[in-house]
Specification:
Blueprint: H1 2-15, E1 26-34, E2 46-47, E3 51-56, E4 59-64, E5 70-76, E6 83-95, E7 100-108, E8 111-118, E9 123-129, E10 132-140, E11 152-159, E12 162-167, E13 170-176, E14 184-190, E15 193-206
Antiparallel strand pairs: 1-15, 2-3, 3-4, 4-15, 5-14, 6-11, 6-15, 7-8, 7-14, 8-9, 9-10, 11-12, 12-13
Length: 207
């Protein structure tokens, strides 16, 4: 028992912290870069009684007005390398502090991944496969943005079939990213919230 306890404490205090900060790696080539200064890529924009999606002042803004509904915007991607990073800046404007927003990677509307954060500081990752949702990383607390941080910086480090997900360079968790094809990238909002998104980027990483 003593050896097990020593091993666990060694992992907790010495090994685990090595994974707490994002490494970013050698980002050799930018393969997708959306600054939202225009809408050349064709992001969905509209306004109705249920939601508003707009591009304004270099931001993609989704305002969801219906409880329990999801809103997203996505565009095609292709030719992803084996190792890459995805980065996104997002800012909570108003609404529910307990509901999710973040990055989506989709095969289609029935299959994909969601990498999420909430205003009250919970981060997690979920998979939808054949229209059924699964938690890859059950939402965990500890990622509430400080007053000095201007936005949430989401980072997904993909190395082969594995990913590490970070919020403001702090590790949320890791897992496999081999369940569905990655045909589209985008952003999403759940429940009644208004969120700004900016600087969505995919970079090749050389190892």
């Amino acid at each position: 028992f003593l050896f097990v306890l020593i091993g666990f404490l060694s992992y907790l205090f010495f090994i685990k912290p090595l994974w707490k900060k994002a490494e970013h790696g050698n980002e050799s080539k930018i393969i997708f870069n959306e600054t939202f200064d225009d809408n050349v890529l064709g992001w969905t924009t509209y306004t109705n009684n249920d939601a508003t999606k707009s591009i304004s002042e270099g931001k993609y803004i989704i305002s969801n007005k219906v409880t329990g509904a999801d809103r997203w915007g996505a565009v095609p991607i292709k030719g992803l390398p084996l190792n890459f990073n995805i980065k996104l800046k997002c800012n909570f404007i108003s609404g529910s502090e307990k509901d999710k927003f973040g990055i989506i990677l989709m095969q289609n509307i029935y299959n994909g991944y969601r990498f999420n954060i909430t205003k009250n500081g919970y981060g997690g990752v979920s998979l939808i496969k054949d229209s059924i949702w699964h938690d890859i990383i059950i939402p965990i607390s500890g990622f509430k943005k400080s007053e000095t941080e201007p936005f949430y910086q989401l980072l997904i480090e993909v190395r082969g079939e594995r990913f590490h997900f970070f919020v403001n360079d702090i590790l949320v968790g890791d897992g496999f990213i081999n369940e569905v094809k990655l045909n589209e990238i985008g952003v999403y909002v759940t429940d009644i919230q208004t969120i700004e998104f900016d600087d969505l980027k995919i970079s090749q990483v050389d190892i």
